[in-house]
Amino acid sequence: MVKMATDRSDPENSLLSRWAKRKEAVREAEEVEAAVAEPAEEAEPETEEEAMALLEERDPELAEQISTMDLDKLSYDDDFTVFMKTKVPDIIRRKALSKLWLSHPLLANLDGLNEYDEDYTQAADAAETVRKIFEAARLRKEEAAKKKAREALASNSSEPAPEEEAETAEADTDDLVEDDDGDLEA
C-alpha cells in the first residue's frame, strides 16, 4: 500500500506537523534576518569624554569638527546642524541644544501662548467663567438698550416710549432661568 501525504495515521506527514515545520523554518529565517539587520546596541556614553571617543570611532571627521567647537562657548550665531547628525551621541547633542535654547531670549523665554500650559481638566472653573462672561454680556446689552431708549426719548417723542424698548430688551434675557446651583439656563 502506498502512503499518501495526507495519511493521518503517519504523525510525520500529518497536516499539523508539516505546518509546524514550515512555521519553525519561517521563525528561524526571521531571527537570522533580525540578527543581520540590527547592529549590536551600543551603550550610550555617560560623559562627554566617552561620547567624543565613541564619535571618533564612528566618524573621525565629524569628531574633529565638533572638537574644534567649545560647547560652553556656543552662541546663537553658531551652526548647530552639526550636532543634529545621527552619529553624534545624545549627551553631546543635548548639551549643544541646551546652549542653543539659552543663547537667545526668543528661544529661552516662553511667550505664554502655549495651549498646553493651561489646565483644562477643571470643568467647574470653566462653567464659572462662562457664567461670568454671559452675565457681563447681558448687563452690557441691558445698558445699551436703556441708553438707546433715553436717546430715542430725547430725540423724538413720537417714537416708542423707553419703557417699551426696555421691556423688549428684558424679554430677550427673561428666557434665561437660574437653576439651583446659580447657573443660568435657557
Fold and architecture overview:
This protein is mostly helical and about 190 residues long. Among the domains are: about 50-110, no CATH class; about 125-185. Helix content is about 55%, strand content about 0%. It has helices spanning about 15-35, 50-60, 60-65, 90-105, 105-110, 125-155, 160-175, and strands at about 175-180, 185. The chain has a two-stranded antiparallel ribbon. Strand 1 and strand 2 form a beta hairpin. Helix 2 packs antiparallel against helix 3 (about 60-65) and helix 6 runs antiparallel to helix 7. It is flat, with a radius of gyration of 38 Å. The termini are far apart. The mean pLDDT is about 80.
Please give the structural blueprint.
Layout: H1 15-37, H2 48-58, H3 60-67, H4 90-103, H5 105-108, H6 123-155, H7 162-174, E1 177-178, E2 184-185
Antiparallel strand pairs: 1-2
Helix pairs in contact: 2-3, 6-7
Brief descriptors of the model:
single chain; two-stranded antiparallel sheet; 186 residues
Radius of gyration computed on alpha carbons: 38 Å
How would you characterize the largest beta sheet?
2 strands, antiparallel
Number of helices: 7
**Residue share in β-strands:** under 5%
Structural class call reads mainly alpha
Terminus-to-terminus distance: 90 Å
Taking all residues together, what is the mean pLDDT?
A: 78
Reading the helices and strands in chain order gives: HHHHHHHEE
Short description:
The protein has 186 residues and is mainly α. It is built from seven helices and two strands, in the order H-H-H-H-H-H-H-E-E.
